[in-house]
Amino acid sequence: MKLLHIDSSILGNSVSRQLTSALVDNVRRQHPALEVSYRDLAGAEIAHLSGEIIGANFTPEADWTATQRNEKVLTDELIAEFLAADVIVIGAPMYNFSIPSQLKAWIDRVAAAGRTFKYTENGPVGLAGGKKVLVASSRGGVYSTEQGRLMDFQEDYLKTVLGFLGITDVEIVRAEAVNMGEDQRATAIHAAKSAIASIAV
């Protein structure tokens, strides 16, 4: 079994990093021969899509710039490890009601027409199904309430884009109120880690 472990927090000892580590450890306990690939999207940032990068799709390879050649190699690598993974663990802290831009940059690379999804006369079809995704969602406040859900563009977005790629087996482990005092932070992390221990993969 292959697992792709992705962290996107810009903080070195963030809650989402603690939870992704616990998620990977839990899967490894169940599958001792687990092969793990790791991407720290904050430590080694992926360039956001630009006109130059995306322009390679519409330009003969002989005319590509050095940037286009380098970024094509990286994109192919990201897609290959994404498609090869049976399980994907994603650390997704909430930044300004959504996901970190570093994580969005990764999504923009792996969401590739003809490779992870395709367009048909009946609409788009995901090509990356059969995977399980475990999301470590951390939030400074509380967004699971009726009012809070109106401001949550983090978890719903991830479920939507993964579903677009054909991945419907998505499980979210959430730690909320982590910036609302040490007691609430500790309680949230403890509850999330307890939930992780019961996840079967």
From TrEMBL:
<dbReference type="InterPro" id="IPR003680">
    <property type="entry name" value="Flavodoxin_fold"/>
</dbReference>
<comment type="subunit">
    <text>Homodimer.</text>
</comment>
<dbReference type="Pfam" id="PF02525">
    <property type="entry name" value="Flavodoxin_2"/>
</dbReference>
<dbReference type="InterPro" id="IPR029039">
    <property type="entry name" value="Flavoprotein-like_sf"/>
</dbReference>
<feature type="binding site">
    <location>
        <begin position="138"/>
        <end position="141"/>
    </location>
    <ligand>
        <name>FMN</name>
    </ligand>
</feature>
<comment type="function">
    <text>Also exhibits azoreductase activity. Catalyzes the reductive cleavage of the azo bond in aromatic azo compounds to the corresponding amines.</text>
</comment>
<keyword id="KW-0288">FMN</keyword>
<comment type="function">
    <text>Quinone reductase that provides resistance to thiol-specific stress caused by electrophilic quinones.</text>
</comment>
<keyword id="KW-0520">NAD</keyword>
<feature type="binding site">
    <location>
        <position position="9"/>
    </location>
    <ligand>
        <name>FMN</name>
    </ligand>
</feature>
<keyword id="KW-0285">Flavoprotein</keyword>
<keyword id="KW-0560">Oxidoreductase</keyword>
<protein>
    <recommendedName>
        <fullName>FMN dependent NADH:quinone oxidoreductase</fullName>
        <ecNumber>1.6.5.-</ecNumber>
        <ecNumber>1.7.1.17</ecNumber>
    </recommendedName>
</protein>
<comment type="similarity">
    <text>Belongs to the azoreductase type 1 family.</text>
</comment>
<dbReference type="InterPro" id="IPR023048">
    <property type="entry name" value="NADH:quinone_OxRdtase_FMN_depd"/>
</dbReference>
<feature type="domain" description="Flavodoxin-like fold">
    <location>
        <begin position="1"/>
        <end position="197"/>
    </location>
</feature>
<dbReference type="GO" id="GO:0010181">
    <property type="term" value="F:FMN binding"/>
</dbReference>
<feature type="binding site">
    <location>
        <begin position="94"/>
        <end position="97"/>
    </location>
    <ligand>
        <name>FMN</name>
    </ligand>
</feature>
<dbReference type="InterPro" id="IPR050104">
    <property type="entry name" value="FMN-dep_NADH:Q_OxRdtase_AzoR1"/>
</dbReference>
<dbReference type="GO" id="GO:0009055">
    <property type="term" value="F:electron transfer activity"/>
</dbReference>
<dbReference type="GO" id="GO:0016655">
    <property type="term" value="F:oxidoreductase activity, acting on NAD(P)H, quinone or similar compound as acceptor"/>
</dbReference>
<feature type="binding site">
    <location>
        <begin position="14"/>
        <end position="16"/>
    </location>
    <ligand>
        <name>FMN</name>
    </ligand>
</feature>
<dbReference type="GO" id="GO:0016652">
    <property type="term" value="F:oxidoreductase activity, acting on NAD(P)H as acceptor"/>
</dbReference>
